[in-house]
Write a structure and sequence with these properties.
Layout lengths: L1 E8 L7 E9 L4 E5 L2 H9 L14 E3 L4 H4 L10 H7 L9 H8 L8 E5 L8 E7 L8 H7 L7 E10 L3 E7 L5 E4 L5 H10 L4 E7 L10 E8 L18
Antiparallel strand pairs: 1-2, 1-5, 2-3, 3-4, 6-11, 7-8, 7-10, 8-9, 10-11
């Protein structure tokens, strides 16, 4: 079973993010359910049910990926699909839409939704996330120039930012020589903020660098691993609990 969560961003002035849904996929079917975070989004920011999923209490099932998500993945019939997978560091023979969405976030300019994979703790007490570096276009010119010299496998430093103007807390990625080159995705903040503050055991590295033709949002693919407390299970707070069985 592969799981993605869906986050919705509220409009101005708060621009707050809420986890509102969960998509589960196996080889035979797809299931979408709203999570309890949608109730908070509705109460605090006026969220209205997605057109594709109008009933907050219903379990939606399908044998094919729902159009809301399918439309966020590049059409496999496009000539540049192989290059697209190359940017994501995925094997063309094994990549599936859920894996693609988990890395790209499925962002579109036409709405305020983002998808992200469920974090899973493994036997050594760590969680690992792979994502594209966020905010590269917003760092200093010197940092952007330094980012152009990044190499696959290069180690990055991980730091907690406590006064980010957009999110309050944020997870920074820095080069070994001190350049802030960007941030981890928002969905990691709530689950990794406390482990990083209490016992900073995280490490990150550059998985892939995309240059020619790649937009800023697809330039630097990062893998971050963080140790978490023994009793901690990521993404199990009330906001992630599903409303329908």
């Amino acid at each position: 079973m592969n799981t993605l969560f869906v986050a919705w961003q509220a409009p101005e002035p708060t621009r707050a993010w809420f986890p509102i849904g969960r998509l589960d996929a196996d080889p035979h079917d797809y299931v979408f359910r709203y999570t309890r975070g949608v109730l908070k989004a509705r109460q605090q920011a006026g969220f209205e049910a997605l057109v594709s999923f109008p009933d907050l209490q219903r379990r939606y099932e399908a044998v094919e990926l729902f159009p809301l998500f399918k439309n966020r993945v590049l059409d496999p019939n496009r000539k540049d699909f192989a290059e697209y997978l190359h940017w994501l560091d995925l094997d063309p023979g094994q990549a599936d839409p859920i894996e693609i969405l988990g890395i790209t976030g499925g962002e579109r300019q036409t709405d305020s939704l983002e998808v992200f994979p469920q974090l899973k703790k493994v036997h050594d007490g760590t969680v690992t996330a792979r994502f594209f570096l966020h905010g590269l276009r917003h760092v200093s010119e010197a940092a952007q120039l330094r980012a152009k010299r990044l190499q696959p496998g290069e180690a990055l430093q991980v730091a907690i930012e406590v006064n980010n103007p957009a999110t309050g807390h944020a997870i920074q990625l820095q080069t070994a020589d001190g350049h802030l080159i960007g941030w981890a995705p928002r969905y990691l903040i709530d689950d990794l903020r406390i482990p990083l503050l209490e016992r900073p055991s995280a490490h990150a590295c550059v998985r892939r660098i995309n240059e020619a033709g790649a937009p800023f949002s697809r330039r630097v693919l990062v893998e971050l691993t963080c140790g978490v407390p023994a009793a901690f299970e990521p993404m199990t707070s009330n906001d992630y609990a599903v409303l329908a069985p």
